[in-house]
Structure formats: structure tokens, C-alpha cells
Amino acid sequence: MKYPERKAEDNVSTVMQFVLLGFSDLPQLQGLLFVVFSIMYMIILIGNSLIIIITRLDVALQKPMYFFLANFSLLEICYVSVTLPRILVDLWTQDRSISMLDCATQMCFGLMLGTTECLLLAVMAYDRYVAICNPLHYHLIMNHKMCVHLTVGSWVSGIPVQLGQTCKIFSLHFCNCNQINHFFCDILPILKLACGDTSVHEVTVYVVSILFIAVPFVLILASYSKIIFTILRLPTARGRAKVFSTCSSHLLVVLLFFGSGAITYLRPKSSHSAGMDKLLSLFYTIVTPMFNPMIYSLRNKEVIVALRKLLLKK
């Protein structure tokens, strides 16, 4: 495929436009993939929107746990909207070209929202820790001001880091090939196209991944270690089951998201393959956001009751 280029200062032809290969290796399935991804996008939008609506309207859900859940659902809508509309356009038009500015914008928002998700999941784990391990002080600690501060911190903490990382990546020269073997502009496939030595940038990516993936995950593990220890000390099996049910949904989401994300960004470079990277990316960018509303609603009686009341009103 032809692509624009310019002469860099060192007289090296530099790519000005990329091509997202996406699922072009499955030519017979383009129509089916478009239908499947369209359905998934609708499920994500409707499911997460319903959670936002019921947590805002139902008085019984005016609790810190559901305040964080509403933010998490909004985040999922934003996160998946960074990648899925572009996938649908590429499948429909078969024009997979993307300008460098659009690619940088997509990557930047994807990284920032991914960072927010890691931090917000850690905040939600801390909320469950306080609720279960310090129930008498729960409303004192997790007051509205604290909830707002934790949520805003989750949304904005990654912005300067990921904005800076995006600027550094796209200040590189890209030569020889403009084909990104992925369905969106992710940082690792783009680095593969850069000219010259990118080892410093790869180390930076690894350090940032540790900071925003590994550290929140360790904090989540610490919270749940305390939670499990507290649950095991409860006198009755029924009491233990009831308490664990309040945090099992969140724990399942954590395992799904952090598992696929950690394998993608923290595994050694030698073990990376385009097919596996695309599969894992599909999991944490699309599949997990689709299942999150189901996980939280089907395993939470309060959410089911609120949803039933909303639907009956309609």
C-alpha cells in the first residue's frame, strides 16, 4: 500500500501515515466480524449506561461502592470507544489507513484510560477493604469528599505520564514499513516500526507498565488478602458467603483485566507475537468491558432489584 513520506533531517524517508492491518488476514470473515463487533459495542454501551442510570436514580444505591461502579461503567464506555468505532470503520470501508496524528491521539487516550482503569480498580478494592475490615469506620473514611478525591485522582493521574510517553514515541522516525500489525494504535506494535535503537523507549514502557499495572495489582492483592483473612474469621459459613459475595464480582473483573493486560505489557519482548498480542488486546479492550455489566448485575442483588424497578417503570 502506498503511503505518504517525507525526508527527515538525516535524509531517511519517514512515514507520515500508518495502515492498521487489524483482521485483514481473515478476508472471508470481514462481514461477520463487523456484525459481531457491532453487537458487542451495543451491549457495552447499553449495559454500562444502565448501570450508570440505576446508580444515579435508585436511592438504595447511593453508596460509595456504586459511586465507583458508575465511574467504572463510564470509563468502560470511553475506553472501548477509543478502539471499537475505528475497528468498525476499517471493517466496513476496508480502508485501514490512519494519519499519524489520529494514531497518536488514539494511542494517548487508550493509554490514559487504561491507566485510569487500573487505578480505579485499585480504589474499588480499597473501598471493599474498608467496608469489610473496618465496617464501623466505613462511612467516616469513605465519605463523599474522599470518594470524589479518589475518583478524580484515578482519572487524572495517568494523563501527564501517558501524554509525555506518547509525545516521546511519536517524536521518533518511522521508516521502511507503515503497517501496524494490530487493530488499534498500541504502543508496542508502533515501537516495532521505529528507526534506530528503541531500547530506551522500551525500558520506559516497561517502567510505566510496572507503575500503573503491577503496583495497583499488588495493592489490590494486599486489600484482598486482608479481606480474605477477615472473612475466614467470621463465625458462620453463611456470613462468610454473604460477605464474600459483595466483593467477588470486583475480584473477577480484576483477574480478567489485569491478567490480560499484564501478560501483554510485562512479558519479555522475545515472547511477543502479533497474533497473541491481538488476542490479549481484544480481551482487555472489548471482551472484559462487555462482560463487566453482566458480572456486576448478575452477582449483585441490589443492582438486580434496582434494574427491575427501572424496567418496570418503563
From TrEMBL:
Signal peptide: none
Annotated keywords: Cell membrane, G-protein coupled receptor, Membrane, Olfaction, Receptor, Sensory transduction, Transducer, Transmembrane, Transmembrane helix
Top-level taxon: Eukaryota
Membrane topology: Multi-pass membrane protein
Start and end residues of each G-protein coupled receptors family 1 profile domain: 47-296
PROSITE patterns: G_PROTEIN_RECEP_F1_1, G_PROTEIN_RECEP_F1_2
Pfam family, one: 7tm_4
Transmembrane segments: 31-54, 66-84, 104-126, 146-163, 203-222, 243-267, 279-298
Molecular function terms from GO: G protein-coupled receptor activity; olfactory receptor activity
GO CC annotation, single: plasma membrane
Location of the protein in the cell: Cell membrane
PANTHER family referenced in this protein's UniProt entry, alphabetically: OLFACTORY RECEPTOR (PTHR26453)
Function: Putative odorant or sperm cell receptor.
Family the entry assigns: Belongs to the G-protein coupled receptor 1 family.
Record protein name field: Olfactory receptor
Organism: Hipposideros armiger
Source species taxonomy: Eukaryota, Metazoa, Chordata, Craniata, Vertebrata
